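User: Can you predict the 3D structure for this chain?
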Amino acid sequence: MQGLLGTLSMLEADADPAARVAGFFDTVRRRESDLAGVLRATAALAQCVVGLDDPRAGTSLRVAPDGRLLAPRAGHDGPRVWLERDPAGPLDALLLQHLARAVEHRRSARHRSADVGVPGEGPPAEQALAQVVLSSAADDGERARAALQLGLRADAGVQVVAVAGGGAADLVTRVAERVDAVRWAQVGGVDALLLQGGLLRPGDLVGEATTAGTRTVPTTAAAALAWPQARVALRFAAAGLHGTSDDRLVSHEELGALAALATVPGDVARSLPDVRALGELGGRPGGRGLLATLAAVCRTRSHRAAAVQLHLHHSSIAGRLAHAERALGFTLDGDHAITRAQTALLLHHLHAAPG
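Assistant: Here is the predicted structure, written as structure tokens:
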């Protein structure tokens, strides 16, 4: 019972426990979670296993406090919900009453959806809750309450994803079937996803213009710290320097020291002679192709390999590269020159990329 009281103490501190339970389930009903989501939220609140068996609907579920689905216990004569603890606590009867109502509300909902929040389609309250989870201005208590009401497990890892170029709806659809939970909101004009129980994969990015940056943290409490890091990773993904489909999904963890390049102020980066030269080069007719050629040669260190990646004849690569080298004022004749050109390319693209 201490677990339930401790959790309730995080919800509306000025209300009594019964009112807090009612407020919690009001939020669950407004979100119209699927039945597994309703039970996960209840199990997290009660801090014990919660069960549902409805033989008429062919539904039998048991959920642990950490959100894991357990072996069901079917065989009841009619619909039933229960809490698995002994002895029962003083609020358990009230909890079960609200749970039964939430289950019935979900069953009778006219519009059923997957257990995701969709901007413009999902309840505005869910958008606001996700924004609180990702907000650095929220305190720990506010963030914990929001995560709990979203059905996110406080003790489980969460992948924070920043998405650009559209395609967030497709991402949600593709990952919803294999992760425990996915929530979607817009924060500062950028699509944000919160994933638990699974990770985004490069193959999930269907739209050619879609790019994503991620940061995975061990608990939802750290999501606000992860959000700006995911946006930094998004800037590298939007830069697209590796020339592969996997390049459109970048994790902040894999950037390492490269992430520091994103902290360079834009005006400082653009004032550097190498970056300024690339900006001027990219603004000329055919300039984007010249920059792509420069990046491909830096990446492969081979005219022929760059030609294969760009679907060009190797003689065309040589001509383009010579043009880019004249603009930069140096040739790619060694490791130092290649590193210098790659750094300039990163800074140029980072300060032209969203995020």
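Residues 92-108 form the longest helix (17 residues). Residues 1-14, 110-122 have pLDDT under 50 and may be disordered.
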